[in-house]
Amino acid sequence: MQFRVFYLINRSGECVSSTSAVAMTPKTICEQMLDRLQSEDDYLGILDAEDTTLQVLPEPDQERYYVEVPIDAAKASFGRYVTRAELEELVLSLPPTFDERSIPGLTYRPW
Question: Mean of the pLDDT values across residues 55-76?
Answer without folding.
Answer: 92
